[in-house]
Design goal:
24% of the residues lie in helices and 32% in strands. It is built from 9 helices and 23 strands. Helix 1 runs parallel beside helix 9. The chain is globular, with a radius of gyration of 23 Å.
């Protein structure tokens, strides 16, 4: 049964919030100031979710979403919003998280940095493989469900990647049976070298099945390698494989004036243009330091930020738990002749236990979405470096961590948001923390 709602504001996740006397309703697709009708769904004691049916009084920021499956796919939340308004909504959500979760009311928020490409920006995309009418297809899942949605025509991927996706989709659509059960396909793209990597995930496969599956994709134009990985614990048995490689298991990409290697088992950024802007912002914020800056970077990945800082004269130590990412970073450092740089394979919490209070001038960190562990936060409080730069993709965990770090020793200086993922409710944020 439909109900009428007046949307007050957009909140975390891109939901439109409406209030009544006893109930908060989150309406997917509702924008501030709109009057809509929606069908209530999942309900809790004091809030519920609702599906938008009709807009009676539309926001001036509302536009027609260009994607044919936008209403069904759970990947994007803001295609129906003008791009300039998307940035403002994300900034509003970020400031709310700082105030409500972080209890931080005095931060200086700079205007969000837009993505150079609002669409066609993704250089990494992961599809679920599903069956329809007896054939196989690439897709995503509907929001808050496991139902498949066709994803082969995704508008967020680059034109070059779209051609690779189209070929893979065509080949899968002509098959009634696969050599092995294929659960996911990830495509990675290098703009600088116009090459692609295909990563296949299976629950399990014999060597014969694995090579048969990879053979379906190895001659796709511009694809330099295909990698199959088993996600099942039974892959340790002799009749099953854990990982099979045909061609090269890595890509090379340009980052500033560096050429970096990213292998299949390392994390790869989705929006390299924005990541380069983030790096330049980090450089600008560090330029006020006198003399060579001693930088400790935590959760370094394949080392792009640290390698760039070392190339600019900083004394850099990077910490990364993933040994494959560390191997990529070392290879990139050697290839680009980067000195004043070292990277260690270690868990961040363990390494911080060994750090002295006067060992570094700045800590740069980009933790996973869950943010910092309590042990990590406690170690940072003990080390007491003069400044920290915290890069985060999740406003809630960021605000929680800032609340911890600012309780005694630090204050928030500059805050800069970057639109790493246009058309979604996600925002990347760089925060400067200054020791009091």
């Amino acid at each position: 049964m439909t109900q009428s709602f007046t949307i007050e504001r957009v909140v975390a996740g891109g939901w439109g919030l409406s209030r009544s006397d006893s109930m908060v309703t989150f309406v997917r697709g509702g924008l501030p100031g709109e009057v809509v009708t929606a069908v209530p769904g999942d309900r809790r004691s004091d809030y519920q979710f609702a599906t938008l049916k009709e807009v009676h009084e539309a926001s001036p920021h509302r536009v027609q979403a260009p994607c044919a499956v936008y209403e069904d796919c759970g990947g994007c939340q803001f295609q129906h919003v003008r791009y300039e308004a998307q940035l403002q909504y994300k900034q509003d959500m970020l400031e709310e998280a700082f105030l409500r979760i972080g209890r931080i009311g005095q931060a200086v928020f700079k205007d969000p940095v837009p993505s150079p490409l609002p669409y066609e920006y993704r250089r990494r995309v992961r599809f679920r493989v599903f069956q329809r009418h007896g054939t196989f297809h690439l897709g995503f899942v509907r929001e808050r469900s496991h139902s498949p949605v066709n994803g082969a025509g995704c508008l967020l991927v680059s034109k070059a990647m779209a051609l690779v996706i189209e070929i893979i989709e065509e080949r899968l659509a002509h098959l009634r049976k696969l050599p092995a059960f294929l659960s996911h396909v990830e495509i990675r793209s290098s703009d600088a070298f116009e090459t692609h990597l295909i990563l296949c995930t299976v629950p399990r496969a014999s060597p014969h099945q694995a090579h048969g599956l990879l053979a379906l994709f190895e001659d796709v134009p511009s694809v330099v390698g295909c990698v199959l990985t088993s996600s099942s614990v039974t892959a340790s048995q002799s009749r099953h494989v854990r990982r099979v490689v045909r061609g090269e298991p890595h890509l090379f990409e340009r980052f500033q004036d560096l050429v970096v290697r990213i292998s299949d088992r390392s994390f790869m950024q989705a929006n390299w243009a924005v990541y380069s802007i983030i790096f330049q912002t980090v450089v600008d914020w560090l330029n006020s330091e006198d003399g060579p800056v001693r930088v400790l970077e935590l959760y370094a990945g394949v080392g792009c930020l640290g390698l760039g800082l070392a190339k600019n004269g900083a004394l850099v130590t990077e910490i990364e738990e993933n040994p494959y990412a560390v191997a990529d970073a070392k290879r990139s450092a050697s290839h680009n002749h980067v000195g004043r740089y070292r990277i260690r394979t270690a868990k961040v919490e363990d390494f911080l236990e060994t750090v002295a209070t006067d060992e570094y001038d700045v800590i740069v960190m980009d933790p996973p979405r869950a943010g910092l562990s309590r042990q990590c936060a406690e170690s940072l409080e003990r080390i007491r470096v003069p400044r920290m730069l915290y890069l985060s993709c999740d406003a809630s965990s960021l605000a929680r961590d800032l609340n911890r770090l600012c309780a005694n020793q630090y204050r928030v200086g500059r805050v800069q948001a970057f639109d790493m993922f246009p058309q979604t409710a996600q925002i990347e944020t760089l925060v400067e923390l200054v020791r009091t």
